[in-house]
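JOB MANIFEST
job_type = single_chain_structure
chain_count = 1
residues = 339
[input]
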Amino acid sequence: GKFERTRIAEYSNLPELISMFKLIADVRTSDTLNLNVPDCEMHILDVEPTELQKELVDELSDRADDVNVGKVDPSEDNMLKITGDGRKLGLEDNPGTKLNVCVNKVFEIYEKTSDKKLTQIVFCDLGVPGKNVSADTDGKDDDTKSVSEIDSLEETGKFCVYDDIKSKLIAKGVPAEEIAFIHDAKNEKQKSELFAKVRSGEVRVLLGSTGKMGTGTNVQDRIIALHDLDVPWRPSDLEQRRGRMVRQGNINKKVHLYRYVTKGTFDAYSYQLLEKKQKFISQIMTSKAPARKCSDVDQASLSYSEIKALCTGDERIREKLTLENRVKELTAYKSEYDN
């Protein structure tokens, strides 16, 4: 039968449903495959918010209040817009922000690994380069995109993060030809040529978005470090990013994954959401026995309670509103049961 995703969590006999699923699916995860991949060390780099970022977070809080009480038309402002602006907030260009912390870390690793021509990847789905027409398109339509690219949440903007990172690395002494954007490769031929340069170490810093540089990007040979400058929405996006480096064929026995978080902004909270989503997915897509019940937390914007808890730093607000919603849900269930 066909089950709506929102109803799966309410299905009273979930193990039977998963057993039916496993009749046609054989789930194999990394813990069962024992692949010859490098060890990956995780580094979380926390940075303090600037005064401007603090002011903007307060502004997001006020906007959330107005949306919650209906002061603004949904076409003018809504939780999705607030969430989107919150995600961009962490990429402010200031000496102490995560953008420049990332640039400094990339250059530090670049210098240390120059003798072996090891490479690095920087992932960012926000502030990507605008659409430029390539001089060599081989007659192919540049608008033809893969499903992953269409489904990507990458966004352009007035401030191009990629150009900023490149210019700062060049100023530090990195040759321009050793830095590349995945967006510069307009067709499969150009992608193939770019990937070959990364594998050989001719290009040592590659910047791209999850949609354009996820599945099918085989450049792992010399990658020593991967940098997550922003936070995607889906656990699968983070896994796709990590999979560009932690992959068979990498000559490095140990690699490093850097994630940059601006305190007091949407960064840390977004990572918490990803963790919750992954817990749900892992209960289904597992090689082990399934849990008896699970809950889905898939969403594209934060709720009012989540935004207020994040902006004020008081988790009790979120807890209170979460409990109120749970009481409403249980009251509805009781009413259905009584009927």
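[summary]
The beta strands are 39-47, 119-123, 179-181, 205-208, 223-228, 254-262.
The mean pLDDT is 79.
exit_status = 0
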